[in-house]
Amino acid sequence: MIGVRREGEIVTIELQREDRRNALNMELLKRLDDAVDQAARDARAIVLTGRGPLFCAGADLAELNAQEFADRLLGTLQTIDSVPVPVIAAVNGGALGAGTQLAMAADLRVLAPDSYVGIPVAKLGIAVDRWTVHRLMALAGNGPARTMLFGAEQLTAASALAHGFANKIGTVADAQAWARDIAQLAPLTLRHLKLAFNDDGSRDGEPSTQRTAQMAAWLSRDAVEGIRARTEKRTPKFTGK
Questions:
Q1: Taking Cα atoms as reference points, which of 7, 27, 6 lies closest to residue 16?
Q2: What's the CA gap between 154 and 96, in Å, rounded?
Q3: In contact, 191 and 34? CB cutoff 8 Å
Q4: In terms of Cα–Cα distance, which of 164, 1, 150, 23 is closest to 97?
Q5: Is the pLDDT of residue 218 over 90?
Q6: Calpha distance 85→98 (Å, rounded)
Q7: Pair 157, 115: CB distance under 8 Å
Q8: Helix, strand, or coil here: 23?
Q9: Please, what is the angle between helix 208-218 and helix 221-232, to 10°?
Q10: Minimal CB count within 10 Å: which of 27, 80, 210, 233?
C-alpha cells in the first residue's frame, strides 16, 4: 500500500493502491501517517506521490465509516502539516476529495501538466472540515475555493498554478529534483518557515455550529444517496434530509 524510497537526504513516499486508484481507507491512512512520521526523523525533505495514473481518488467509498474515517484523515493531514521538514506533493494525473486534502497539507505542490484537483463533496452529500475550507482559500484564493466547493468543479494544473494552489508544473522527477535542492538549504530556517506559513488560522478551534453542520451532512440520507449514486454511476437525487 505504501512505497518508501530514500535517495540521500530526501524520501519519496508513494501511495501504492493502484487497483483502487490510490483511494484512501483506514489502513492506507495509518501506513501513510507512520511513513511520514518515520521519514521526518532524519530526512531533509519528503516527496509524496501516487503510483499509476492518479495521485489519489479520495476516500474509498466502499469502506467509508463517517466519523472514524474523518478522524483518521484529520490525524494524517495534521502529521503532514506538522512534521518539521518540507513535504512536496507531486500530483500525477489528478487528486480528488481526500487526495486534494493530502496535497493541501503538503508545504509545496508540483502538478503534472495534465493533472487536476477537486473536492466534489457537494456531489456526494458529505462535508469537509473547517481546516480544508480555510486552507483551500489560503492556497487558491476565495473565489476559486468557492467554485471548487460550491460548484464541485475541478481546477486544472494551469489554473492551479495561476491561482497559487500549485507552486510548479512538472513530473514526480521534477518534484524530487526540487526536494534535493531544498534539502541543501538551512533546515532550522525551513522548520521556522513551515511553522509560520501553517499558522494561518485554519487549525483554530472549529465552532460547534460548523461541526454540527458537517456531521449532519455525513450522517444524512443524502450522503447515503450520494455515495450510492456514485457507485451506480448515476446522478444523485438529493432531498436535504
A1: 27
A2: 9
A3: no
A4: 23
A5: no
A6: 22
A7: yes
A8: coil
A9: 50
A10: 233
Q: What is the mean pLDDT of the chain?
A: 94
Per-residue pLDDT at 61: 84
Residue (of 34, 27, 28, 33) closest to 15 by Cα position = 28
The residues with which 155 forms a beta bridge, in sequence order, are 117
C-alpha cell, 35: 511513513
| pLDDT band at 206; cut points 50, 70, 90 | confident
Residue 66 is predicted with a pLDDT of 65
Residue-range domains of the chain with CATH: 2-172 (3.90.226.10)
Longest dimension (CA), the chain: 55
Could you tell me the pTM of the whole model? 0.93
- Rounded distance between C-alpha atoms, residue 234 and residue 219, angstroms: 21
